[in-house]
Amino acid sequence: MRRSAASTSCFLGALLLLGSTAVHAEADTVPGDLPALSAASDHASVVGVSSGGYMAAQLAVAWPERFSGVGVLAAGPWSCAQGALSLALNQCMSTRRGLPSLDELDHRRERYESLEQVGERGALSQLRAYVWHGDEDDTVSPELGSLLAEQWQRWLASSEQLRFVRSEHTGHGWPIKLPKQANASPQALGDCRQGGGSHVLACDENVAGDMLSWLYPEREANASEGEVIAFDQSEFAVKGLADVGYLFIPEACEAGGCPVTIALHGCQMSVDAIGDTFVRHSGLNRWAADHGQVVLYPQAESSMANPQGCWDWWGFAESTWQLNPLHDTRDGTQARALMAMLEHLQSTP
């Protein structure tokens, strides 16, 4: 989405990051609580696109000991905004103010670590990381995706733990490869360069399968069917979370023991905004059904402070009296809620 310099009214419109079962509950159906599934306490992963990509990195850096892998699509370096909206707009989407300094961000992470507000560097170095960016992305500069890959390369113990993909002729969003029998509306999907109404890009590119296969290189196939259920997010209610979230559970995981992938949508990509397009067509569920993986789809909501339903990667959900928002630490309001969901899935029924 391109904005003219004179269109200051587009500021809120751009804020921030453009961002196989139907998931809508019936009007008279009240979603139940998030179930305790005895999910595996190890091998969890967190993935996300756009604002969800920024949030995925925040969770992985804050709690690296709780994850084995992280996947980030169409986003820039961890903590890029540093709690400042002006940086988010001008250095973490566009690069009008130049590229962020990785050295400065490293010092930020080290300071947090000294205060025990993020995980230890040793645990961070053991993750597997997947970074994807479209070369035609005019919402988040592709240079920022390259910088994110460089940042993770600094942190990881080996270059073999990182896969970085730059996708030629692809814009801003989450690329997918639709199965032949898919009945997605053309209006719901964008082509490779344009986000359409959903930022789910029909590019014939199975980024979900590529990413999860990278994050779980030794996972054996354990094919089964599965279903998407809605759950009440009020138990985890914090600023910016919607009332309802979604969960994909393969039949093979109903008895417990499966790892969890937290999948974070981008701005304008929640169920309230685009229906079930991301939850149903991201490709994550197909891989999860084939390999025994639970997929959690938390949902953010739109508000005056966050009109496009983004995840908090610049500090809007924190207290206004804080000089330095702690959204990118273990004390982050939304980060704590998302980790509480993971812990609940890993608990015994």
What does this structure look like?
The chain is globular. By secondary structure, the protein is of the alpha/beta class. The protein contains 11 helices and 10 strands. The strands form 2 sheets. Strands 4-3-2-1-9-10-8-7 form an 8-stranded mixed sheet, with helices on both faces. The chain has a two-stranded parallel sheet with strand order 5-6. The termini are far apart. α2 links the parallel β1 and β2. It is 27% helix and 15% strand. InterPro entries: AB_hydrolase_fold, Plant_Biomass_Hydrol_Est. It comes from Vreelandella alkaliphila. This is Poly(3-hydroxybutyrate) depolymerase.
Helix-strand category: alpha/beta
Major sheet summary line: 8 strands, mixed
- Separate helix tally: 11
How far apart the termini lie comes to: 46 Å
Q: Please report which band the strand proportion falls in: under 5%, 5-15%, 15-25%, 25-35%, 35-45% or over 45%.
A: 5-15%
Let me know the number of strands.
10
- Radius of gyration from the alpha-carbon trace, in angstroms: 18 Å
What's the SSE pattern? HEHEHHHEHEEEHEEEHHHEH
User: Which segments are poorly predicted (pLDDT under 50) over 5 or more consecutive residues?
Assistant: 1-27
Quick overview:
This protein has eleven helices and ten strands. The protein has 349 residues and is of the alpha/beta class.
Features:
eight-stranded mixed sheet; two-stranded parallel sheet; 11 helices
Architecture blueprint of SSEs:
Elements: H1 10-14, E1 45-49, H2 51-62, E2 69-73, H3 85-90, H4 102-114, H5 121-124, E3 128-134, H6 142-155, E4 162-167, E5 174-176, E6 200-202, H7 207-215, E7 226-232, E8 244-250, E9 260-264, H8 271-274, H9 277-281, H10 284-291, E10 294-297, H11 333-346
